[in-house]
Automatic annotation (TrEMBL), chain A:
Coiled coil: none annotated. CDD domains: cupin_ChrR. It holds the Pfam family Cupin_7. This is Anti-sigma-E factor ChrR. Residues 105-190 form the ChrR-like cupin domain.
Amino acid sequence: MTDIAHHIPDALLASYVAGSLARPFAMVVAAHVSICEECRANLAAHETVGGALLHDFEPISVSDDLRDRVLGHLDDPFLAEPARPHGNPTYPAPVVEALGDKPPRWRSLGPGAKQCILEAGKAGSVRLLHIAPGFAVPDHTHGGLELTLVLQGAFTDETGRFGRGDLEVADDDLEHTPIAEQGMPCICLAATDAPLKFSSFMPRLLQPLFQI
Amino acid sequence: ATSFSEQTEWMLKVRDARDRTAFASLFDHFAPRLRGMLMKNGFGAAQADDVIQDVMLSVWRKASSFNPERAEVSGWIFQIARNRQIDVIRKERRPMPEDLAMPESTDIDGEQVLGIEQEVQKLRSAIARLTPDQRDLVQKAYLGELTHSEIQAETGLPLGTIKSRIRLGLERLRFEMKGER
Ligand SMILES: [Zn+2]
Ligand SMILES: [Zn+2]
């Protein structure tokens, strides 16, 4: 946990706290925070900013009716929120939750690469990638933001080395080729807000098939 | 005894003694501010009242997960309110980090709690010193009206000291959890 070198930038944390971050990215942020104490503290700091703002908002009086209603509900029985699954040594809790507490169902993406799509929609997509040692994530450029969180093993690309817990933030300028290190297969949680465009590895015709 | 802020005292009475008078004080303090925030955020009066009701009842029901060594009351309530607003606006639940266990003992490290409160005071005065334009931008950012790329990482707010104070609270928790095993 202490070896994490690449953390969540402040603008993304603030955006997560505000709730303006699209769901696929929010999942990656929640997964990283689940295993990174530093970012957990930073997240709480941003919540504190929100609290300071709340404290300073011009109060607008509320009706006695609302006050009575709320105080009158204190004895109501209520359903406790269902217990959320715990993370395991590979998958942090938000990923276990997205997997429905089952192991991932991998689909081949070509030589040495598999994926398991967790969510895909208008807001973007989030998937698990499984890259065999020495293999590359298919060469691609981005239409927008891409967050990649390493859950097992490690990869290196033009920008550096990323091991367990490290988060790579890539935007449309970056053309990179992440290659899995020798040893364990590299498993990543990757979110994008736009379809990835493959530059060479895979014909673009195949994209709809793989939903990437 | 150490003297925490009124809000912290009320919240601890709610958490530890299910004290209704303390809860009513929390309501009187926060409900009008929540209303100010929600209306600024474009909520109509009736919808704002529904959200305020849900948020304040969550404060009552989830009080056991409030930990003053890691969070300050306003921030804790702000987060509950944002989550509820996202539920209402987008009809979806935001992915959340794994919950940390609560410490077994209810002893409070008063120095740590006061430390967080002091940091919050510093933050409030830093916000008060912002120009109206800057403050407007910070409000927009934390009310979800800016995209992450529009949020300037450098807001000029003294986040570094709060971060390290909250980290101390997390480290203490980790230390306690180890001790239990
Ligand atoms: Zn981190
Ligand atoms: Zn990429």
